[in-house]
UniProtKB/TrEMBL annotation:
Gene3D superfamilies according to UniProt: SET domain, Tetratricopeptide repeat domain
TPR repeat coordinates: 60-93
Record-level Gene Ontology MF annotations: histone deacetylase binding; N-methyltransferase activity; protein methyltransferase activity; S-adenosylmethionine-dependent methyltransferase activity; zinc ion binding
Positions of the SET domain: 168-457
Name the UniProt record assigns to this protein: SET domain-containing protein
PROSITE patterns per UniProt: SET, TPR, ZF_MYND_1
Keyword entries, A-Z: Metal-binding, Methyltransferase, S-adenosyl-L-methionine, TPR repeat, Transferase, Zinc, Zinc-finger
Organism per entry: Parnassius mnemosyne (clouded apollo)
């Protein structure tokens, strides 16, 4: 669903200007409605005035002081948020940025995150540690060094056991580099992704980066703006006050792909982009323009999207995330788009208005600039209506209490391969979120020629949505409502109808190892193979209690793998002892 900021809606209702937008919707060219919205907003003087927020030491100090208060009362979660916001607003090389790193290292020390504490201390020292806190920081550093040794040994041990499992180290598909050669694409009236041969349970089939992705608003103070990683050592963008990165590498890549432009109008985006679709539309447009390399290419490409482009596209243009046309190949046969089109037109128009004020971004000549603005409107409206976001739920660690949980607050991304696979309530593929990447592995035995399927809502044994909520999510994503046994929840009450035969029950007892993944870390390779064998044997009875137990062990393994590979950590201890999330 595409949401329109309230200030647009109220103003247009008062002035009765909406009819001009409705008239423009009748035209086939998406740019017409965006350009009409831009003209209406300009002529009526109703474009929002949004000032850029500059780095400010006083603002940074205020956030740091709020962090100190939260720290004193034991709310480390809020303390971390405030210290991170202090970093966002701190000017480069200022005293404020040094103090923010120093104070953050104090809560990391308290929460026994010693290695991460040392990173912040080293960063503070490189920037030039203030003399009045130098002795305190050196003392904290020496103590953290002593206590970090065991922590580092444990982390290295875990990584060594998991690094080779679910590793995507296979022969790749010649047309789709992120995919395995075990899959192939059949093109008839539509594209269909199928198994190129018989595929065993547990086989990795794709490791795909998102074209662009966005964090949920609640995750922003704790997550990398580019790759989603929830890190305790986030670093600020030097140009804006609204994003953080997990590393210099992510910051550099993000600046190159889209953030160098996004950074200059982040306040505008924050004010008008209220939904994942809006945020992805803006990032996706900026990256697409960057990949085109010229406005001439952008203008020509904007005239062929959706079904028109799918008909002439190759497999690579359809599914390869590194091909700019992959995001112009989302199916555009969606119904009921006029409400979203109306809302999106004002968001797109406002964004174009502010893009035009970035020096040197749009062409200098009047005629070419006009064509470029129309191309932007055309592409942005297409993205707004048809480029469906794929939810991303990350595994997050509470290392102090040795617990992890699936973050219920979803981020979103565009995945040209995984996002276009056929939706199924009982899929034959399982999607593993690895921050910005998604790993696809076989969950069932798949016969050669069978179509590959995923659940974009999430597997029903993990995301057990209440029926009404699932119906709402399904309609928003796919504009249809499924009434199968899974979506209605009837499978839970009919488990006994799917009980094992005596032969299957014997196989269950013989082959399935009842062991806990965490306890038997040394036996991970053997355990994972036994789980995959059990899933294979019992794939014909997916609703039985026995199958659910096997799947639960499978998910425990995947969760442990995610925990080690992604290293998403937050400080979740609250004053009342509860766990956030």
């Amino acid at each position: 669903m595409f949401l329109m900021p309230t200030f647009f809606n109220n103003y247009l209702r008062e002035r009765g200007l909406g009819h001009q937008i409705y008239a423009a919707m009748k035209n086939d060219d998406y740019s017409d409605v965006v350009m009409t919205a831009l003209r209406v907003l300009e002529e009526s003087g109703s474009l929002p005035t949004i000032e850029k927020e500059n780095k400010c030491e006083k603002r940074s100090d205020k956030y740091r002081e709020e962090g100190n208060i939260a720290f004193k009362v034991g709310n480390v979660y809020r303390a971390l948020e405030f210290y991170n916001r202090a970093l966002m607003f701190a000017p480069k090389n200022s005293r404020a940025i040094k103090l923010a790193y120093s104070n953050r290292s104090a809560i990391l020390f308290k929460m026994e995150q010693f290695s991460k504490c040392l990173i912040d201390i080293e960063t503070c020292c490189k920037l030039g540690c203030p003399t009045d806190i130098e002795s305190k920081l050196i003392k904290r550093k020496n103590e953290a060094i002593k206590r970090s040794k065991i922590e580092n040994i444990t982390a290295s041990l875990l990584a060594s056991y998991f690094k080779d499992y679910c590793k995507f180290d296979v022969k790749t598909n010649t047309s789709i580099p992120c995919a395995s050669s075990d899959i192939e694409v059949i093109k008839g009236n539509v594209f269909k992704v199928v198994a190129a041969k018989d595929i065993k349970v547990g086989t990795p089939l794709a490791l795909e980066d998102s074209f662009v992705s966005c964090n949920n608003e609640e995750n922003i103070p704790f997550s990398c703006h580019y790759c989603h990683k929830m890190s305790l050592n986030l670093i600020p963008c030097e140009g804006c006050c609204l994003v953080l990165f997990c590393s210099e590498e992510c910051k550099e890549i993000c600046l190159k792909e889209y953030h160098s432009i996004e950074c200059q109008i982040m306040e505008v985006i924050q004010s008008i982009a209220f939904s994942p679709m809006a945020k992805l539309m803006i990032k996706g447009t900026l990256k697409f323009v960057q990949m085109c390399g010229s406005w001439k290419k952008v203008i020509s490409s904007s005239h062929c999207t959706g079904a028109d482009r799918i008909r002439i596209s190759s497999e690579q243009e359809m599914y390869d995330v590194n091909n700019k046309f992959s995001v112009l190949n989302f199916n555009d046969n969606r119904l009921f788009v006029h409400g979203s089109m109306y809302s999106a037109s004002f968001v797109c128009a406002t964004f174009i208005y502010y893009l035009e004020r970035i020096s040197g971004y749009l062409p200098s000549s009047f005629d070419e600039r006009k064509l470029a603005k129309k191309a932007l409107g055309r592409i942005m409206m297409y993205f707004s209506l048809y480029a469906s976001p794929t939810p991303v739920n990350l595994r997050v660690s509470d290392t102090k209490n040795r617990k992890s949980f699936l973050n219920p607050i979803s981020n979103h991304g565009w995945y040209p391969l995984i996002g276009k696979l056929k939706e199924s309530c009982s899929p034959n593929l399982f999607v593993i979120n690895l921050n910005k990447k998604m790993l696809l592995i076989a969950l069932k035995p798949i016969k050669m020629g069978s179509e590959l399927t995923v659940s974009h809502i999430g597997h029903y044994l993990i995301h057990q949505h209440e029926h009404r909520a699932k119906t709402s999510i399904s309609f928003n994503l796919f504009e249809n409502v499924c009434d199968c046994i899974i979506c209605t929840g009837e499978w839970k009450s009919q488990r006994k109808q799917f009980a094992f035969t005596e032969k299957q029950l014997n196989l269950y007892k013989e082959r399935f190892l009842h062991e806990d993944v965490g306890v038997n870390i040394m036996r991970i390779p053997d355990l994972f193979q036994k789980i995959c064998n059990a899933l294979t044997c019992f794939s014909e009875v997916p609703f039985s209690e026995e199958y659910v137990r096997v799947f639960t062990k499978f998910f425990e393994f995947i969760s442990a793998y995610q925990e080690v590979v992604c290293s998403n950590v937050v400080l979740i201890e609250n004053p009342d002892g509860s766990v956030r999330g």
